[in-house]
């Protein structure tokens, strides 16, 4: 494959090309350090986002589950109220356990 002319690259392609050139010019030790920093940053960002998503997912799932139970025959408002209280209490316990970590 032939070399692509610089004038035919898009702005995004030029940015990527410049980053690639900088990485190719790095020494071995600089390159290893650069990659390790990127990995650590990605891990920490992913871990923090996972905490946020987990809490949102649990809340959404419990709400949906409570609504599904409410549609069943024989389950009245009082029983639904008790089920929601129990679910909320368990969710708070999970949140507190996660915050301790």
- Taken from the alpha-carbon principal axes, the silhouette is elongated
Task: Count the beta strands.
Answer: 0
The end-to-end span amounts to 53 Å
Low-confidence stretches: none
Encode the helix/strand succession as letters. Answer: HHH
Quote the average pLDDT. 80
Write a structural description.
The relative contact order is 0.06. Helices cover 81% and strands 0% of the residues. The protein contains three helices and no strands. The radius of gyration is 26 Å and the shape is elongated. With 101 residues, the chain is mainly α. The protein starts with 10 loop residues before the first helix and ends with a helix.
Question: How do you describe this structure in short?
Answer:
This protein has 101 residues and is mostly helical.
Write the layout of secondary structure elements.
Blueprint: H1 11-25, H2 28-70, H3 77-100
Features:
101 residues; mainly alpha
